[in-house]
Design goal:
Blueprint: E1 5-6, H1 20-29, E2 34-40, H2 56-70, E3 75-83, E4 108-112, E5 115-118, E6 123-126, H3 131-142, H4 146-163, E7 168-169, H5 190-204, E8 210-213, H6 229-238, E9 242-245, H7 258-268, E10 272-276, E11 283-287
Parallel strand pairs: 1-2, 2-3, 3-4, 4-7, 8-9
Antiparallel strand pairs: 5-6, 10-11
Helix pairs in contact: 4-5, 5-6
Length: 297
């Protein structure tokens, strides 16, 4: 089957390399039926990758323009990716604090964990920035114990599932990204797998779709998506919903390794995946035993 959609897409409004229009045109050229643009929401403690609050009107205005321009060829859906430490609120959009989620000018949110916070020193360590940053986190917060660092990350990932107000859980095991060769913790150890599995099983109870993020195929030597294969197998056993996303920053990679991810999920026992849609319910369920041709809804 062909997914023909991506719900996790970054542009030049944040840390993406392609403009929104370039992403839209790429989606159309690939026969997509829908595309979700998800700028990184504002985080005051780290301005290196996200949009500023004053940029929100331009972001929304450009996406509305593109919806009108290309709406007969593609369902363009406005979203945002928000970090656990910066959950979007109505006041970000100059709405009264009492405004409901449905009143926000965005249709959906990807809730992700990118940081481990040292509350005593009010420092945020980014888990996917650099090995040096993660090494500092391990040493300064956890006395050199990488397993304890991973455990804290998964504790935050569970909190994100219940408190992050997201419609999709982004890259649940992102802590693996810089762990090539087991530099920080042994991913094959019973201790690590117990921690990760416990967190996964708890997060499933929130009822939010998990992202199968194919950017994992770019990062690291293990060449697996986020989530890793054994965690995906557990999600299949639990019949938890999943959505395949590329976390795209460059327009020609919108469907990066999608076919590979589909085959993997089928092999692991998944019967269906979710796909973003522009009208009606946010997601449609796509059976993995049916072939969805490009352009077919």
């Amino acid at each position: 089957m062909k997914i023909c959609s991506n719900a996790h897409t970054h542009t030049t409004f944040c840390d993406g390399k392609s403009t929104p229009e370039e992403q839209v045109l790429s989606a159309i050229s690939k026969g997509f039926v829908s595309l979700g643009i998800t700028g990184h929401a504002f985080t005051a403690f780290d301005l290196s990758y996200c949009m500023k609050l004053e940029e929100y009107p331009a972001y929304l205005g450009e996406l509305e323009r593109l919806k009108k321009l290309y709406g007969d060829r593609l369902d363009l859906v406005i979203g945002m990716e928000q970090d656990l430490y910066r959950v979007i609120s109505p006041v970000d959009f100059q709405l009264p604090p009492s405004a409901s989620k449905e009143e926000l000018p965005i249709r959906y949110r990807i809730a992700s964990v990118h940081y481990i916070r040292d509350e005593q020193n009010d420092r945020y360590y980014e888990v996917d920035l650099s090995a040096d940053e993660l090494e500092a986190c391990k040493n300064e917060m956890f006395g050199g114990d990488g397993l304890k660092m991973a455990e804290r990350f998964y504790q935050e990932s569970v909190r994100n599932a219940f408190e992050g107000q997201g419609d999709i859980l982004g890259h649940f095991d992102l802590i693996r990204k810089l762990n090539d060769g087991g530099r920080f913790f042994d991913e094959d150890s019973p201790e690590y797998q117990r921690i990760a599995l416990s967190a996964l099983e708890e997060a499933v109870k929130a009822g939010i779709p998990f992202e199968v993020n194919t950017a994992g195929y770019r990062n690291g030597k293990k060449n697996q998506p986020y989530l890793t294969i054994w965690m995906l197998r557990k999600l299949a056993e639990l019949k938890a919903p999943v959505i395949i996303n590329s976390d795209c920053h460059v327009a020609d990679q919108l469907d990066f390794q999608f076919d590979r991810a589909v085959e993997l999920l089928r092999e692991l026992g998944f019967k269906s995946v979710l796909r973003l849609q522009g009208k009606g319910p946010l997601f449609e369920e796509c059976p993995l035993d049916e072939r969805l041709e490009p352009g077919k809804k």
